[in-house]
Design a protein that fits this description.
The protein has 122 residues and is mainly beta. Helix content is 6%, strand content 24%.
């Protein structure tokens, strides 16, 4: 997934950009209709937006909705994969953390001892 945006004037497809704005942890970010939430975050220069239990930064890993590394809370709905969800104008995105001492909105552990935690995978 590339964070690069092609200016509409030089786009050989001839698309017409429809701007949108989302907020991420209270910060407004500009995007284009049709972009995924991950695309908007990457275009804004944010390569990670959550922390694993070890504190390692996480963002887009697979980019196709398989790995759950890019989960965020969108409009109050937890564990939304940012790479799979199209950004909508006015979306309120909140980042999640599983780091020790993370926020109260962090995912819960499966407790299966495998080191893999998919949270509430819907």
């Amino acid at each position: 997934m590339s964070p690069r945006l092609v200016p509409a004037g030089s786009d050989p497809v001839g698309r017409r950009d429809r701007p949108l704005t989302i907020t991420v942890d209270g910060e407004p970010l500009a995007g284009v209709a049709g972009q995924s939430l991950a695309g908007v975050l990457l275009a804004a220069g944010r390569t990670s937006w959550r922390r694993s239990p070890s504190g390692a930064p996480r963002g887009v890993f697979c980019g196709i909705g398989v790995c759950f590394d890019c989960v965020v809370t969108v409009n109050g709905e937890r564990d939304v994969r940012a790479c799979r969800r199209r950004a909508l104008d006015g979306d309120a995105v909140t980042t999640q953390s599983r780091a020790a001492g993370g926020d109260a909105g962090s995912s819960t552990s499966t407790g299966n001892g495998t080191g893999t935690d998919f949270g509430d995978a819907r």
